[in-house]
Amino acid sequence: MSALAPTALQAEQRDSIREIFGDLVWEPAIKVRTTLAEANTDALPLTDGRVAEPRAMYELLAQSFLKAVPAP
Length: 72
Description:
The protein contains three helices and two strands. By secondary structure, the chain is mainly α. The chain has one domain (2-68). A two-stranded antiparallel sheet has the order 1-2. The longest helix has 17 residues, at 52-68. The radius of gyration is 14 Å and the shape is flat. The relative contact order is 0.15.
């Protein structure tokens, strides 16, 4: 299963979270990917082609975090 396209309910929930928390919500939103969730169980390395997109999304999110949160 790969929930790449958000359902109407998921989009509504995402929009509600953005309304409530505003700038505290960072982009990109991480999509639910069973491949990524089961990577550990399946011994799937993060360098595998099937996880390239979610890995890139996490890298972008990490960059957003590093910009928003100052180093101690």
